[in-house]
Each structure stands twice: as structure tokens, then as C-alpha cells.
Design goal:
Number of helices: 24
Distance between the termini: 85 Å
CATH class of the largest domain: Alpha Beta
Radius of gyration: 26 Å
Length: about 625
């Protein structure tokens, strides 16, 4: 009788293989010496699952468990490929909503079929060699031995974390001190990161702030965007040490200066458009003349980025609140009804504006039936709560119809703030099913020298172009064009297109971490002169920039972003904590690359990394502790 191998080998090989292939596919890195930590944690969980599986006789349950492990790793890989952030249990409801677009999920699997097959190799091998393994129930001695191995490998893994404690994103800090899922997946592995995510979502987790040296504003004649907030009293009367720490940090944070652009749009109407999938690659003087006009005849931001943070809802949260949207933070926003006095709608409501918002898709999508009111838009109309009576809400709805069916609501309610969330530019990008908008505009792009996916994307963006043309014509017809400012930002780049597809039409070669997010910010008024702003900026900067332009008082310490027209250094943060500044860019996996003629020391890089870590922590604490309610209420009393 041929010797049969223990199924323990199966669990061990499955975990180590999946961690190995995930590191290569998700982070484009081969396992290095630090991978030993991943192996040790993998041994611990492999032995633990084997411990329970071996309590039962037979092979069916082993197949079910190993298939479940396979699906777990495939799902994590596909989720990361689609949204550029790792999956977390804190976003289960968000993931379920995003997967409503089955065509996108199916398209993603087809696109990544080779990678998916790589994940299926172990289970296919098991089917071939299934008779070579022993599936019988084990005795008590075996169980005790295996359980000792579980504990032994886990303890060894914990000890191995102590090798490096100094690096901000070391294995030790990622395990104990920093909630940074992307690098944690890379350094600690998928399984360990998910285990920590579950633990932290149940028990809570606090990241320690790294206090930065406050900038000394020595030019006293300058005015600053700063309120007289009673930090000293709040700190003295606060019993929660975590909240005390946040107050101290915010009190000493750099403030931004008022400037020549402060209040230039005071009293004007504002139409803010969050454009689905919009990116600078969609702009062409011939194909999209209105978009081109708004960009190149208004305030022209040449180094603007729309970083992907969990699809549209992440882009919306950044632009509306100037806080960083992690999965956990977005969950708090949707579920806790936080006080956000300087979110866009609330800030304008406070100075007497009529505020309304419109979306040509489901009013419940991303829980907008509750989040819109936290942003200051009590007058929210979308498909399902009334808009379907005015326009065709069948997928995909038209952005042109959105403008035509809502403009009369606010045209006579000056001053007004109108917020549009468009959907016509949504994926999947194809002409043969799933994208009726692309089919509608196909004839306008069919002769372009690009792949069908790229042409379909451009066709979908033509609906946004036509909607903007319609909007401007309506404003002109009603004689309110000169008194209205149009602001437009994409929610994210078209991430279902590959980087190669994006580079088909990009004017320069884009990488897949930073430059793929490079886009346009439109801030346009008919009376504006053209002005080029080459400072680095991002969606996080949109809110403080608008508040400054409209002369609305706010405290710049309470936001992560900065007024683009202030003296603050240009800066953009990406979901994996890479960043770009006016001095160069930093990739978490490879380090800093300075711009030409820039000499940067290590202190600058460490300061920026600490600043980003703090920005994530502060954004979370503001939402978790509802800190604006204490800060702003105390200021207004």
C-alpha cells in the first residue's frame, strides 16, 4: 500500500502559495527576507484549520475548506485590482453595493482570467492527486501535537516582528500601531491583515499621533483661515485621553493664509459636479469642446489628482469634507450621522444659500438617502425618490436628462448651491452590452485609433460633455451664467481600464499608482480670466479652496486638504499612502524620487510620512468621536 501524505501539507502549501502569488500580483514584488513573517503566520493558521478539520473523518470537508480558502484569496485579489485598496470587513455593505454592477465584476474576472487561474492551480492539483492524501480522523496525541505547533508558530511569528521597530511601516508597527491595510497586506500577508481587521473592527483600534513641528507664521500682517476655537478649555475639560491628543494636534497644526483669491466668488451661485469616471484623458478640443473650454478658459489646475479611495463614495467624501475616506471612516459616515458643519452643503446653507443635490441613479446607493443630509443637502432627488417621474432611470441614465429634468428646481432660488452626481460615465466600457450611453454615442468615436474599451469610455464621457453644454445654455438663457461658478471633479479615474489602455490616449506615459490618477479640476466662471495653477493638488483640497473663493470663514486646521491658492506646499495623498508634492513623489514600496533640481533630506520624507499617518488617524477620530460637534458648537455658542 502506497504511503499517503497528511492533509496538513495541503493547508500549509495552500496558504504559503496564495500569500506568495498575492504579493507578486498585488504589489509586483517577489517575496524577500521579510516573507518569513508571512510564512510563520501562515503555518500557524494552516495548522489551526487542520486541527479542526482532522477531528472529522472523510475528505469532503477538506475540499470545502480548501476551496473556501482559494475563494478568499481570489476575492481579495480581485477587490484590490478593482478598487486599488484591500478588502476589509468594515466595508462589507460597501462591497455588496459595488458588486451590484455585475457586468463590472464579470469583466474584471475575464480581464484577470490568467491571474485567477494561477490561484486555482492548487485546487486543480488536489483534484488530480487527491488519493495521495490521508483524510482519516486523527487521534488525541496528534491533536495535542498540532495544537502545540499552532501556538509555537504564532509565538515565533510575534517574536519575529521585533526585528525592526524603527521603520514607520515596519511589520511591528503595522501589527501593533498602524492601521494601514495596503502595506499590511504586503508585509504581514493577506490572512494576518484580515485577522487584524476583524479584531480591530470588534475591539476598536487607536493609532498614536506623531506630533509635527508647527510651522511658524512669522509674517504677522497676513490673515489666516483660522477660527478662535477654545482648544485649551476643551483639553482641560476632556476626560478621554485620545480626544485630548487630537485637540492638541489640531491646535498646533499649520494654518493656511487668506490670499488674493479669497472671496472673489462671494455671493455667486455654485454648481458642483462629481463626474463619474471623469479624467483628463477624456478632454479633447474637438471631441469635447465644452470641457476643453471650461478647463482652459478658467482656473487651469495642471497638477491635480483624483486619487481612488473606494470608488465614487470615496471621491465624494474627499471633495465634500476634505477628510480621508478609509473603509472604516466611510462606514461611520453612512451609519453614525456625524455633524459636519463645513461639509459643502452645510457651509453654504449657513450663509443663506438654497442647497439641493441630484443623482441619476438610486437614491439609496451608497446610503445617500442618509449621507446627503450630513453634507447639507436636505433637498436630495434621485431615482427612486421622485426623479424617475421626470426622466428615464433605466441603466444607464443620461446626464443630459439629469440637467434638463432638474434645472427649473433651482434657477430662481438665488443664491443657490446645486450638487450633481453623474452616472453616464460609469463602467463597463463596451459597445456590445451593459453600456447604453456608449452605444448611443458610438458613431462619434468609431473612427478614433483606439481600442474598443477606450473608445467606449470616450463615448460615455460625451454624455457629460453634452450635459455641460446643456447646463451652460440654460444658465445663459436664464441670464444667470455670469453669476454662477461651475466646479467639476472626477470621482476617480476610470479604473476598469488598464494602465495600458489609459496610456493609449494619455499625452504622456502614466504609472499605475500616482499618474494614473492625474486629472482636471474645473473651477470656471464666465467672467474669469485664464490662469494656470501648476501647484500639486487633489480632491482633498477642493473644499477648502471653494470656501476660500466664496469668502466663507473656516478653520484650515480642521481639514486634511489645503486651499490651493494658499502658501501651503502642494500635496496629494493616495490610498496606499504614496504621495506627491511640489518637490517629488514617494512610493511606499520603493521610496522617494525628487523632481529635477530638488535636493531633499531624509527629514523631509519622514515628516511627510508622519503627516500622512496623522491625517488618516485624525480623519478617523473626527468621525468616530464626532469631534466637530464639540469643536464648532463650542465656537458658535
Amino acid at each position: 500500500m502506497k504511503k499517503k501524505y497528511s492533509t496538513l501539507i495541503l493547508y500549509l502549501l495552500f496558504f504559503i502559495y496564495f500569500e506568495w502569488i498575492s504579493k507578486i500580483l498585488m504589489f509586483n514584488q517577489l517575496p524577500n527576507k521579510d516573507f518569513i513573517i508571512v510564512i510563520l503566520f501562515s503555518c500557524s493558521i494552516a495548522f489551526l484549520i487542520y486541527f479542526f478539520a482532522s477531528l472529522i473523518n472523510g475528505k469532503k470537508h477538506h475540499f470545502v475548506l480548501l476551496m473556501a480558502i482559494t475563494i478568499f484569496y481570489i476575492f481579495n485579489y480581485l477587490y484590490f485590482s478593482l478598487l486599488s485598496v484591500p478588502f476589509s470587513v468594515s466595508t462589507l455593505d460597501l462591497a455588496s453595493q459595488a458588486m451590484d454592477f455585475y457586468e463590472i465584476g464579470f469583466h474584471l474576472i475575464i480581464t484577470k482570467i490568467i491571474e485567477v487561474m494561477l490561484f486555482l492551480i492548487p485546487i486543480l492539483c488536489l483534484f488530480i492527486y487527491q488519493n495521495k492524501f490521508d483524510y482519516t480522523k486523527k487521534d488525541i496525541k496528534n491533536h495535542i501535537f498540532v495544537f502545540i505547533l499552532v501556538i509555537g508558530f504564532h509565538i515565533t511569528a510575534l517574536f519575529s516582528l521585533n526585528i525592526d521597530k524603527k521603520n514607520l511601516y515596519s511589520a511591528y508597527n503595522l501589527y501593533y500601531n498602524i492601521d494601514f491595510l495596503t502595506t499590511s497586506n504586503n508585509v504581514l500577508g493577506i490572512y494576518t491583515t484580515q485577522r487584524l481587521s476583524i479584531k480591530r473592527s470588534i475591539l476598536g483600534f487607536k493609532e498614536n499621533l506623531i506630533f509635527e513641528n508647527p510651522a511658524s507664521n512669522t509674517i504677522q500682517e497676513k490673515e489666516y483661515n483660522k477660527l478662535d476655537l477654545p482648544f485649551d478649555d476643551l483639553i482641560a475639560n476632556e476626560s478621554d485621553e485620545n480626544v485630548q491628543e487630537i485637540y492638541k494636534y489640531l491646535q498646533n497644526k499649520e494654518v493656511t493664509n487668506k490670499n488674493e483669491y479669497t472671496g472673489i466668488y462671494k455671493g455667486k451661485n455654485l454648481i458642483f459636479i462629481l463626474a463619474e469616471g471623469f479624467n483628463s484623458i477624456a478632454v479633447d478640443p474637438t471631441l469635447t469642446p465644452t470641457l476643453y473650454k471650461l478647463i482652459h478658459e478658467g482656473l487651469d489646475f495642471t497638477n491635480y489628482y483624483s486619487p481612488v479611495f473606494l470608488s465614487t463614495t470615496g471621491g465624494e467624501f474627499q471633495a465634500m469634507t476634505s477628510l480621508i475616506p478609509t473603509q472604516e471612516i466611510l462606514g461611520m459616515w453612512r451609519n453614525n450621522n456625524p455633524y459636519l458643519p463645513y461639509a459643502l452643503g452645510n457651509a453654504f446653507q449657513k450663509i443663506g444659500y438654497h442647497t439641493s443635490s441630484y443623482h441619476n441613479w438610486s437614491y439609496k446607493y451608497y446610503d445617500r438617502d442618509s449621507t446627503m443630509s450630513t453634507l447639507g443637502f436636505d433637498n436630495f432627488l434621485a431615482c427612486g425618490n421622485g426623479l424617475e417621474n421626470r426622466m428615464d432611470c433605466t441603466w444607464l441614465p443620461s446626464d443630459v436628462d439629469l440637467i434638463n429634468s432638474t434645472f427649473d428646481d433651482y434657477k430662481k432660488n438665488e443664491p443657490f448651491l446645486t450638487y450633481y452626481i453623474t452616472v453616464s460615465g460609469h463602467a463597463p466600457y463596451n459597445f456590445n452590452g451593459g453600456n447604453s450611453i456608449a452605444q448611443k454615442n458610438e458613431s462619434l468615436v468609431e473612427d478614433l485609433p483606439y481600442s474598443d474599451s477606450v473608445k467606449s469610455y470616450l463615448a460615455s464621457q460625451l454624455e457629460l460633455e453634452n450635459a455641460l453644454t446643456t447646463l451652460i445654455n440654460q444658465l445663459k438663457k436664464n441670464k444667470i451664467l455670469d453669476d454662477t461658478v461651475i466646479v467639476l471633479t472626477g470621482d476617480h479615474y476610470p479604473y476598469t481600464l488598464s494602465t495600458d489602455e489609459i496610456n493609449e490616449i494619455s499625452s504622456y506615459e502614466r504609472d499605475e499608482i500616482i499618474e494614473v490618477n492625474h486629472s482636471n479640476l474645473i473651477i470656471w466662471n464666465n467672467k474669469n480670466e485664464h490662469k494656470v495653477i501648476d501647484k500639486v493638488s487633489s480632491q482633498l483640497d477642493v473644499l477648502p479652496t471653494i470656501l476660500n473663493l466664496f469668502g466663507i470663514d473656516y478653520d484650515s486646521r480642521l481639514f486634511v486638504g489645503k486651499d490651493i491658492f494658499s502658501d501651503a506646499e502642494g500635496f496629494a495623498i493616495f490610498s496606499n499612502r504614496s504621495w506627491i508634492s511640489d518637490k517629488g513623489f514617494y512610493l511606499t514600496n520603493s521610496g522617494f524620487v525628487p523632481k529635477k533640481d530638488q535636493k531633499i533630506d531624509e527629514n523631509y520624507i519622514n515628516e511627510q510620512n508622519n503627516h500622512i499617518s496623522n491625517s488618516f488617524s485624525v480623519s478617523k477620530m473626527i468621525m468616530e468621536k464626532d469631534l466637530y460637534k464639540k469643536l464648532i458648537n463650542s465656537e458658535e455658542k
